[in-house]
Amino acid sequence: MTTTESFADDATTSPNTPIVLLEDVGKSYGNIQALRGVSLSVRQGEITCVLGDNGAGKSTLIKIIAGLHDYTSGRMSVNGEERHFGSPRESLDSGIATVYQDLALAPLMSVWRNFFLGNEITKGPFRQLDVAKMKRIAQEELTKMGIAIPNLEQPVGKLSGGQRQCVAIARAIHFGAKVLILDEPTAALGVNQSGVVLKYVVKARDAGIGVIFITHNPHHAYLVGNHFVVLKLGRVALDTHRSEITLEELTTEMAGGSELEALSHELREINPEVVVDDVRKGQEGT
Amino acid sequence: MASTITSPAAADDRVSARSLGARLLSRPEIGSLVGAAVILVFFLIAAPPFRDINNTGTILYQAALIGVMAVPVSLLMIGGEFDLSAGVAVTTSGLTAGLFAYQFSLNVWIGVIVALALSLAIGAFNGWLLMRTGLPSFLVTLGTFFILQGLNIAVTRLASGAVASNSISDMDGFGAAKAVFASEFKLGGVTIKIIVVWWIVFVAIAAWVLLKTQIGNWIFAAGGDAAAARAVGVPVKKVKIGLFMTVGFFAWFTGMQLLFVQNGVVQSGEGVGKEFLYIIAAVVGGCLLTGGYGSVVGGAIGALIFGMVQLGVVYAGWNPDWFKAFLGAMLLLATIVNLVVKNRAEAR
Predict the structure, then answer these.
(1) Contact state of B9 with A147 under an 8 Å Cβ cutoff
(2) Its principal location (chain B) (predicted)?
(3) How many domains does chain B have?
(4) What ipTM was estimated for this complex?
């Protein structure tokens, strides 16, 4: 397992220079430090998984990169240039697209309108929407990603959770995202649907996109990730490459490691048999 | 890699092609269209004067008086907000034009332009305050409603010494302005007020903007899910401020109609309660109060229903007291229909 110190070495020795590089980035809301000294690098064609429990600072981290919040200390550079994003538009214009878990799409709008929202194609002197062209491109892009939506006029709210995520990912890729931030894309999904989404995450990586995959599910992360960062109480608790960690280690680290052990000791005193069984099941995973 | 997971891309056999009927039923204005047809047939049977073609012009005029304002109010509602000050803002605009031109002895058109600037400023103020504070539009525009209602009467009394603005009917430019805002013409024996023509033009333009332009897409998104819209780069604040200014523009237009149709006099107490009629027209026309869904054409049909019922009750010789009760029932019915539509659209 590497620490934040040796991480800097990785970044310089990698043949692939990072598109987004965070160095010692912090964010405080008044007297609350939501994020402290976080370093992270995102490279093309790599999936960087950010794991952490609720309140670990994952959302704050995304919001900084996506341009919803500015950071208060440290340095964030995009394509080698130091940046402070004032709005999501600036982040988007730098090639960073964010797919949020619940606010990815407007539910009552049709699929094609959602697909082109904010990037509408217009024609003619009155800048009329080129509906036919947008529908055609949306259909092509979705088919390319392997998503079958027979009627692009139907509201996005009618799609399943997995389909919605896929539409959002296909949209981000189509509009030339170089970095894709996925905010817990599998959190609300069943096993099959999660598989579908993970498949598109890999497709995005293969298309040369740098992916930041936020999740609290180490199994999903380990299926696709190249690099793992675990956040705990706003700090980086672990930062390592796939080759240097096993799923078991990642799960333990993610689940709280030593804390979990202490907890199981505590619980064992109450009712040894049931608790030990449960913990073993939990670690074996699904 | 693509083959490792069973592909969901193969056409889903649970999805069947939608029939024309199903597609029609998913239009937001369908409920109001059916309602309008029922009401039309009903009054054609119940009220003999309703069948008189000459009264068609009157019914359309009555509808247009609400319909012109229902255009921006529908857009605003689709954009997720509403404006309680819309009714008195109309009066404010009419009073401003009348009082300004009279007090400074200027050409009527100068008053008209000053009123336009003020109306746009009121809309911008509503939108800006809303975006700035993040308060619900109900509260912000309720405040503006009372401010304008009070100012209308106070400033009018201060300037003219009475509760109505001074008549500007003999001033320069009155004739030309009246021709634009409040004239009428004969079409095959039917007297058509010019505002009916304007109404149709405004509905056509607004419907086109809503459905066929980028701005329209942004309006739907701003009302449907403001956070999602902002995240993909839609300037939600600008869209909403723009919508309030659109309400301002139409309030100005309706105010000018009010001023010039009444020979250059506007009563300062007018307009209170009209904001609800605009909102009813929009809701009956299929706009969701919560935003993100609706239609400008629907709002126009809502206004038409209003016009037909208001005059139909009179033509049928009934006591007009029934009208408001009917209006309330229509609103409830429309709201329930909309709720069902929304639930169906959001259901997986």
Answers:
(1) yes
(2) membrane
(3) 1
(4) 0.79
Which of A68, A87, A93, A108 has the most B C-beta neighbours within 10 Å, making it the best mutation to test the interface with B?
A108
Could A100 and B342 be called an inter-chain contact, meaning their C-beta atoms sit closer than 8 Å?
Answer: no
Whether A267 has a pLDDT exceeding 90, the answer reads no
Its sign, for the CA torsion A230, A231, A236, A237, is negative
Q: What is the pLDDT of residues B107-146, one digit of tens each?
A: 999 999 999 999 999 999 999 999 999 999 999 999 999 9
Residue B26 placed within a domain? no
CA distances (Å), origin A14, targets A41, B33, B313: 11, 65, 81
Rounded Cα distance, B107 and B102, in Å: 9
What domains are there in chain A, each with its CATH number?
4-108+161-245 (3.40.50.300), 256-286 (no CATH)
User: What's the CA dihedral at A198, A199, A205, A210 to 10 degrees?
Assistant: -20
CATH number at residue B321: 1.10.3470
Are A196 and B231 in contact (CB < 8 Å)?
no
Instruction: Identify all chain B residues contacting A162, using CB atoms and an 8 Å cutoff.
Output: 8
Q: Å from A208 to nearest chain B CA?
A: 16
pLDDT tens, A193-204? 788 888 888 888
Q: What are the pLDDT digits (tens) for B160-212? A: 899 999 999 889 999 999 999 999 999 888 899 999 999 999 999 999 999 99
Q: If you search the block for the tokens 């007018």, which residue do you land on?
A: B270
Decide if B14 is inside a domain: no
> Global pTM?
0.80
Chain B closest CA to A94's CA: distance in Å? 12
| From A194-208, B35-49, B88-102, B244-258, the region with the lowest mean pLDDT | A194-208
- Residue B42 falls inside a structural domain: no
Q: Which domain holds residue B108?
A: 52-342
Identify whether B17 is part of a domain.
no
What is the percent of chain B with per-residue pLDDT over 90, rounded to a whole number? 62
Q: Which residue has the higher pLDDT, B2 or B291?
A: B291
CB contacts, 8 Å: B237 with chain A: none
Among B8, B15, B230, the residue with its CB nearest the CB of A88 is: B230
Determine the Cα–Cα distance for residues B95 and B164; give it in Å rounded to an integer.
8
| Chain B residues lying within 8 Å of A131, measured CB to CB | 212
Nearest to B8 among A88, A122, A196 (CB): A196
pLDDT of residue A15: 47
At what angle are helices B53-78 and B194-212 packed, to 10 degrees? 30
Return the residue of A nearest to B211 by Cα: A129
Asked whether the beta carbons of residue A157 and residue B346 sit closer than 8 angstroms, the reply is yes
Interchain CB distance below 8 Å, A119 and B233: yes
Measured between beta carbons, the chain B residues lying within 8 angstroms of A105 are 225, 228
Mean pLDDT for all residues in chain B: 88
